[in-house]
Design goal:
Blueprint: E1 16-20, H1 24-37, E2 41-45, H2 48-58, E3 62-66, H3 74-81, E4 93-98, H4 103-112, E5 116-119, H5 124-136, E6 141-144, E7 147-150
Parallel strand pairs: 1-2, 1-3, 3-4, 4-5
Antiparallel strand pairs: 6-7
Helix pairs in contact: 2-3
Length: 169
């Protein structure tokens, strides 16, 4: 009986990822992990301004963006990318990398329209899980008022994004 050949092609072989972080060492580590996952096109930028240039040049499928950077920080970059009236990349998947886990920062990141967050320091497994969610299980995009980004997960509802009407209103 004939056995089916096992595919060795990575589900990430066809995507491009742009890593935007001012820490050169972290970019190299993330690049190595992504290549290990099978991503063949990985681009790097040291700040948000360079990240925007490379985004326009290479049109990656996923952005991994640090929060704190010189020139143009992650929040400012994400705000520009997620602007559906001025950005051709408004629906690009965005994973925010940050060491900041304060509630107000997480809420701000969600309101900016990030797809996923990755808390530094992170493991290869955590990076792969976030990449899998963005690439293989994308949420549809929506616009409500000034918010443009992925729909909230059903388990959390829109209230966590500051989008739901107040029950008292």
């Amino acid at each position: 009986m004939g056995e089916r050949p096992v595919s060795t092609v990575s589900p990430y072989a066809q995507i491009a990822v742009l890593v935007v972080d001012d820490d050169t060492y972290l970019r190299k580590i993330v690049r190595s992990l992504l290549i290990g996952f099978g991503v063949q096109r990985v681009y790097e930028a040291g700040d948000g301004a360079q990240g925007l240039e490379l985004l326009n040049q290479f049109r990656p499928d996923v952005l991994l963006v640090d929060w704190e950077m010189p020139m143009l920080n992650g929040a400012e970059m994400i705000r520009l990318v997620r602007d559906p009236t001025n950005s051709p990349h408004a629906t690009t998947g965005i994973i925010l990398m940050t060491a900041h886990t304060e509630r107000h920062r997480i809420q701000q990141a969600m309101q900016l329209g990030v797809n996923e967050m990755l808390v530094k320091p992170f493991s290869a497994k955590s990076l792969l899980q976030r990449l899998d969610l963005v690439v293989n299980h994308p949420r549809p995009f929506m616009q409500i008022g000034n918010y443009f980004g992925p729909m909230p997960r059903p388990a959390r509802g829109a209230a966590g994004f500051g989008l739901a009407e107040s029950a008292e209103a």
